[in-house]
Queue: 3 jobs
Job 1
Amino acid sequence: MELLVGAWRGERQLFLQCSAPHAWRGSCHQPSVSLQPPLLCTSPLSHSTGSDSGVSDSEESVFSGLEDSGSDSSEDDDEGNEEGEDGALSDEGHSGMEKTTEEQVQDGSPGPRTEVASARIGDEYAEDSSDEEDIRNTVGNVPLEWYDNFPHVGYDLDGRRIYKPLRTRDELDQFLDKMDDPDYWRTVQDPMTGQDLRLTDEQVALVRRLQSGQFGDMGFNPYEPAVDFFSGDVMIHPVTNRPADKRSFIPSLVEKEKVSRMVHAIKMGWIQPHRPRDPTPSFYDLWAQEDPNAVLGRHKMHVPAPKLALPGHAESYNPPPEYLLSEEERLVWEQQEPGERKLSFLPRKFPSLRAVPAYGRFIQERFERCLDLYLCPRQRKMRVNVDPEDLIPKLPRPRDLQPFPTCQALVYRGHSDLVRCLSVSPGGQWLVSGSDDGSLRFWEVATARCVRTVPVGGVVKSVAWNPSPAVCLVAAAVEDSVLLLNPALGDRLVAGSTDQLLSAFVPPEEPPLQPARWLEASEEERQVGLRLRVCHSKPVTQVTWHGRGDYLAVVLATQGHTQVLIHQLSRRRSQSPFRRSHGQVQRVAFHPARPFLLVASQRSVRLYHLLRQELTKKLMPNCKWVSSLAVHPAGDNVICGSYDSKLVWFDLDLSTKPYRMLRHHKKALRAVAFHPQYPLFASGSDDGSVIVCHGMVYNDLLQNPLLVPVKVLKGHALTRDLGVLDVVFHPTQPWVFSSGADGTIRLFT
């Protein structure tokens, strides 16, 4: 109701203005006709994207009660008919006008609204009686935003709604008008009336000047010459003849008081006079230390950014020849990933500094440096001022740890294939070796002479000499059998007593069920030294003796709990000590003094008590694959080698974790061994070297073992990527034997 009253007041004032003689003829001749056509009978939607009433086409169609029917088929023929039809589309209150319009459309005669609309389109300022704004929209001084959500824009003098123009033109019609109308580019829409206005040449020029940042007035010159008020020429008469003030030649009392205060402050020391600056320039390193007075420097937890590495010779524009890459190195560099390259650029050589082009990765490297400074976290670490020399353990000199093997003394040649295993007699006079050429060879240690060769008809995986000095017996693992041989070397009495011991066995009446079969050798086999054959169901990978010489442990290449078997020589019995498996067994070893059995799987070493039949300890070597095992003669320390080139020392009294891990070899370890008497242990690897270390174990339990590498022994040639396959010490001398893939056995003394 308030909107209606406000609109009526504005329209009443407009009506009174129109009652003047000069305005009645132009604007108030036909009030019902002159007020509606600008909004009801306007031309279609403006082509410009200028201001609209804030309502979309679909909303305005809903407000007017019409559906958007697109372009009319008769608009090309008769523009007046189209406007008459559009003007007739109003609410039910316009029934009289609807009838009149329909009759005019049927008769084909143009109605008064059509004439007025066409006249107004021809001259938009014909009825304008005000210099401020277009007064054809007689809604009064009411903001047009009030009508954004309504289908009309105001009321006329008769109180009828003035409806917004219909949006019946789609983008296709606008495109056709854009192509056909040459003045389309200079046509804009009037937000007050909704009509399309064509800009004149002067208005277009004004818009272009404003868009280019120029002044609107073409006659305005922003660069006019300035007029100086005071001339630079000497004039006869002064500018002013005002007499000088008295204060210009009388001392000032205020300044006198200020000076006296400053003198008193200087005497009291409140004001310090300026000291003369040192004229000599000071040079300092900008990056040596950050300014402590800066904001970041005063921050207690500020961590300065790490400095970039200084450029080297490779970054030079004229680098030395050894820094330039060859063609093969350049191809390898291009095929590598960016993160794997040692240099992020290719060193190049230029004749002079003027010929050096711009660096292509400059912006990228600066950006990455900014990201590192911005995103990488920095942490302050509390460091203790410790002398680096104090961190190095005080190891004794190798010359103080003698004796240990230092040089190669003898080479035992005779095998035609790689030598897998070695064993030395208890007295140290004889040496036995097993090879892939299917033979066992017995050597005299002192002369490197092969005294006997025993063909076994298969690959010898492991060989072990009985440690008892009262028995002359050798066990060899060949395929799925363990061969027990009497080489008959050395003392004949010992060899004879061994045969008597083996022949004194009386088999029981009912043979027990055993996991292995004991077979006597034939007469032909006894001629070459074979006495017994222990047959298994699977291939044998290792054989080892107990310290007393009566028990024998073997490892089978199978899955399950029958991987480890223990044979008793005197009673010719075999047993499987385990009821379940804990992985693939690699090596076994007897404890030298106590009833313990050590079983090494791929990832762990288990220590079993044979009498109690229980697991005592489980050692974790932290290796990927254990390859070899050895027990210290005292029994309290164990070493094991692995295929990932690690040697691990365990102290059984200390912990189940490694006491020390040595990484001296470059490739996989194949064998480790302790010396029976001297504090020495050795390891053989696929890199072709044997490393001898000093390993002193003290009787004092409070003192840890001392491990010192003392010598690297080389001599074996690499064959099929294999180096040293077995290592064994002499029982009484500080000598070490090694067998290699090159088919030789070497003695280092």
Job 2
Amino acid sequence: MTGPKGGYYKAELGEPHKFDPTFRGPVHNRGCTDVLCCVIFVIVILGYIVLGTVAWMHGDARKVVYPTDSYGQFCGQQGTPNANKAILFYFNILQCANPTVLINLQCPTTQLCVSKCPDRFATYIDMQLNYRRNKSYWDYYKQFCKPSFDNPDKSVSLVLQDEDCPSMIVPSRPFLQRCFPDFITRNGTLTVANKTSFKDGHGKTRSVVDLRDAAKQERTVLSGKVTAMQQGTESGITSLLDAKEVGVKIFEDYASSWFWILIGLVISMLVSLIFILLLRFTAGVLFWMVIFGVIVAVGYGIWHCYWEYSSLKGKPSSDITISDIGFQTDFRVYLQLTQTWLIFMISLAVIEAIIILVLIFLRNRVRIAIALLKEGSKAIGCLMSTLFYPIITFLLLALCIAYWAVTAVFLASSGDAVYKVMSTRPDCKYTNLTCDPKTFSQSNVTKLCPASQCTFAFYGGESLYHRYIFVLQLCNLLVFLWLVNFTIALGQCTLAGAFASYYWALRKPEDIPPSPLASSFGRALRYHTGSLAFGALILSIVQFIRIILEYLDHKLKGAHNAFTRFLLCCLKCCFWCLEHFIKFMNRNAYIMISIYGKNFCASARDAFFLLMRNVMRVAVLDKVTDFLLFLGKLLISGSVGVLAFFFFTRQIPVIQEEVPSLNYYWVPLLTVIFGSYMIAHGFFNVYAMCVDTLFLCFLLDLEKNDGSATRPYYMASSLRAILNKKNKRPEEKKKRRKQKKEQPNKRH
């Protein structure tokens, strides 16, 4: 509603905004906003740098990269005695089936670095019996014994008591740089080296199922620190080991086809660019063609349902209701009932009616949405540099992710080696107590708990820093989310400022200011770092809570408390909705910040009220934009994927000889399809930001201006035509004034 002094009122919501005759797009004379949040943000970044430095000083990435044996030594590290021994070997992997493994996260058996895993079944007893006839038995077996041990004549009982050598070895293959039994399922029977049983070196015959259980338990320790173990996969280890060979072939395929993959991605980039530029001509055609296709398809569905209904009518047993036959696993039974087709027909008829009614009553809003999409294509054509801004966002995000990952690794590897007493006897009271491996053999523990040992458990410490490692990891995660969301917010505000400069130019492209993208980026960083950080912080806190809820839900999956699971499910749903609402509001708040230069809260409030006054236009534009952009992504990735398929399968005769020899043609094919989709997604994100910015500017234009010479509409002529709006020319205004002056003279 127009105000008395050239201002305008925000209908029923919000406060009135007076008309500013000097407004010509993004305000240049602006001040810093949300300074306090900016200061806090800078302090947090400095603290984050300090945290990373402290983690780097205390941590050691080798603890994550290399396996650690029972003596705290790294396997495979260059410059150490274990340089050529990169694989961890378990003396008695059957001990890993002990329940204490899941409590202490450590297998209670000696762990040794070896150069290769054993490839045969053998026991120390068999070796001792055979090595006198053939020294090769001992030469092979001793590589799995302690390096200091070289006495094969030592009694078996003493060797096993001192754990100088393993009591047995089984055919194994490396998995995660650790030796695990080489399981193979033959005709549904689990085997190791074609055997279903073996000798354990203590005079007993064991089943390979025992090995499987022990291997699963230890895999839980390895992966359970991060994720739960995959259940019910006896051949899972074998499958993952075979993946190594597949990985080598995949690497070879990438090495021979990377050039053609790159060409495919360049083609997808060009196609995405052309698609966006052509939307000014094709947006309406694409939309109405698809809508017409949907109407025709639904209409055909109605006819087909009626035809099936008529065909079945009168047949015996077709008049039975669905409730009479109840639930059937064979759904073809329901297709023999007239009631089924009647329900289908009525449902499709209702859907058809809704589509037609929506198009009839919202046709003008759909036309506005299509016109804005076309205008967005023109804006992209004038500001081509905006399409490449996501590269800056990508580099900043890569920097944030790399810093977070490195900091997390160094925090996780902080501390010194901690050794604990490991015993297979449940009555040992010293189990899980810290110990010193240098003095352990002289302590009373070995006497009170025979066969116990002091083995490496984890890395840690007793200092204040080490006690709060988990808290520091949480801080690392929260700041990481804040930085990521700030980077995205900076990109959105920058693009919004550039596209707002385009919209508020009365003559396009003559009145567009020079370097709009660079100017917008400078304004966003110089004046609105605090506002962007404020919005990013709100979103980051919600995301942080969601991550914690997901973690709790993962931990409580086995719980039988139905109320707890229900409560967690409700909380997850609520915070998911809250996160998406905040993302939507932040996006529009950043657009208002880029235009008016107000603080975050004021911009969010103005954007919210503006959208609420035009809620139907918002809904229609959002759905039309999402639909066309999704269709565009499918068309681009699909067309480039089809082209890549014909190329890599040698079905294009002209360039058939240029196709590289591949192990798996689907490797470069899937890479091209996925890469094409991501490139299209990046281009269309810029386009979506453009359309959203132009839409808010369009709504502001409608409320601020009336088409007069002093307050002309800045919208495109196509939008004015849809709304029956016109800009009055100054000559027309002067002519009208002259006519008014002449009218009194004629009367006299």
Job 3
Amino acid sequence: MSINSLGQLYFEHLQNPLKQRATKENEEDTSVDTTQENQDELGLWEEKFENFVDVKVNGPASIGLDFSLHGFEHLYGIPQHAESHQLKNTGDGDAYRLYNLDVYGYKIQDKMGIYGSVPYLLAHKLGRTLGIFWLNASETLVEISTEPAVKYTLTQMGPVAAKQKVESRTDVRWMSESGIIDVFLLTGPTPSDVFRQYSYLTGTQAMPPLFSLGYHQCRWNYEDEQDVKAVDAGFDEHDIPYDVMWLDIEHTEGKRYFTWDKKRFPNPKRMQELLRSKKRKLVVISDPHIKVDPNYSVYAKAKEQGFFVRNHDGGDFEGVCWPGLSSYLDFTNPKVREWYSSLFAFSVYQGSTDILHVWNDMNEPSVFRGPELTMQKNAIHHGNWEHRELHNIYGFYQQMATAEGLIQRSKGKERPFVLTRSFFAGSQKYGAVWTGDNTAEWSYLKISVPMLLTLSITGISFCGADVGGFIGNPEAELLVRWYQAGAYQPFFRSHATKNTRRREPWLFGEEHTRLIREAIRERYALLPYWYSLFYFAHVASQPIMRPLWIEFPGELETFGVEDEYMLGSALLVHPVTEPKATVVDVFLPGSNEVWYDSKTFSHWKGACTVKIPVSLDTIPVFQRGGSVVPIKTTIGKSTGCMTDSPYGLRVALSTKGSAVGEVYLDDGHSFQYLHQKQFLHRKFLFSSGVLINSCADERGRYPSKCVVEQIFFLGLKKQPSSVTAHSSDGKAQPVAFTYCAKTSTLSLEKLSLNIGADWKVHIQ
């Protein structure tokens, strides 16, 4: 990598306004510097945008720098854009823009900024991965120019023309409106090294409470307590598991957050007790805009203490949002964050209980009549910083304060769940992120995969897209396919805007209900695998949803794949994203790999593309040979109802006949895994006909009643004569088994092997 090789280093200094300077200098010198006058002509001190005038008190203050990456053609990162996973050349069009904006029904295949920004990109080539983290929260543009490798180019050397090999090169130019040059170069050399290096700077994914990995049911809006009760009952009636009911802005009294509409939700605690009885949770919305109303205690207290962002004349900034005229809390001020956190205390937030969690929306911040629907850049924050300096980090600080509030209300014992729409580098420390106001069209289902892959590799593992599309009414086929995709993505929530037709899973006829039920149940069966992946993201900064190039960094053909991905290192998922599909082309990477269809158990050698026939009930998922995937064998109404339900193991053999896997478990909700080391981390190893369950981390201690009751082997070439289970005290027991020669599968049933104990299973 070389820096400034194109000479694009640029650093504009803050300047005194011309009038001040003229006064100072007049006594000594009558010739005043005319730089500002020249810059004025270019509109650099004062910019007009529609009806808005942006006055830059200290003049233009932009910075920029270029980086040349030698031998690299594949770049990824800098979310959030509704664009391909691999970054494109920007020479023939717009630069990638990082500027958090509320964009309803955003365009796809577009480099405009949407809800969040992570100014961090990765470059990958055979043998090396590296990262560039440009730490700047002002509006930022990134230009990318790739010169592909040329095998030979003719160079004239005197009378002789010589052939010279030219390697590829990509130039990246960062430009920010303000701030300083603060850039971190991550040198890898492997993808996982880069992930770890980035996590040292910004933190790892927060360990989520287990319920948040279940299915979430949301719309704008569930009308009242009766509606919530009916929808909750509908899931039980149709035997569909779910974990979380969501309430959008209409649950409040006139869009005043931390309140309840007394007509619609007269008894919020009773409603929460109903959900609690089924071990379910409630999420409510809390936005950063506060209704201007002296009788609203949140507004009155914030105003009294000077906790709002100010306008450049010194008064409180006021803009229009859902409640009408609103002021915006200044979350960049630690005192404001501390106060906001205190609002979540049970004694303060009337009607809230410990099953209530929070959703931060509109926190770009969204200002309905503002420039580009956001706050003017010359609004003033704590410490006299202009909004332009820190725009992209505003939402990050709201999520931080919310998560802290939920932790504090439990006296530091319980893990919070907070979803945010706006985000920045490091937002992973506080919860989950989603892709915002998407549309119920096939193209948005398709683009969700690369969008989530890009978030995942830039540290934000807990991410998802609104199932079904937020805007519009999905046809039944699209809705089913979206549930099937969402079930294999980290954050799994259905959501719809106002005035769309109701779309609870049972409203599209019996057959579609069955297909959606199956997709959601597959999610719940895989929860032990999901939860383990989140633990590895939390402690080792490994993404959960992985583009193929991360698992196969030495295989060029994986570098541009974005219609399929790895879930951890064991499962390959290829969502169906086309209408009326009857076949999909699935690329199975790795010349030394073997892949098993998780439904039919057919297997293929890697490094090939296979045509997989699909009907509406097919979710193409493949288990990698050499892996062990832990599952739950019985599904409950919610994750909380499955705490003690038995485990199964899916053991897929490699070409060498071995397999390895892990499982992590703890109480699913507290910080005791951290403070008291109350957890189990177990390792499964199958080799030479013996499956061993052993401890993977001796520090962890957690009593579990759970047993492994079923073990399923894929790729076992010959029928065994006997199977025995050996406990740690040496006792051996014969095990009943079923072998299928046609599919080369072996099924062991009715086992009772404790998940937390050492044991072996011998296959002879």
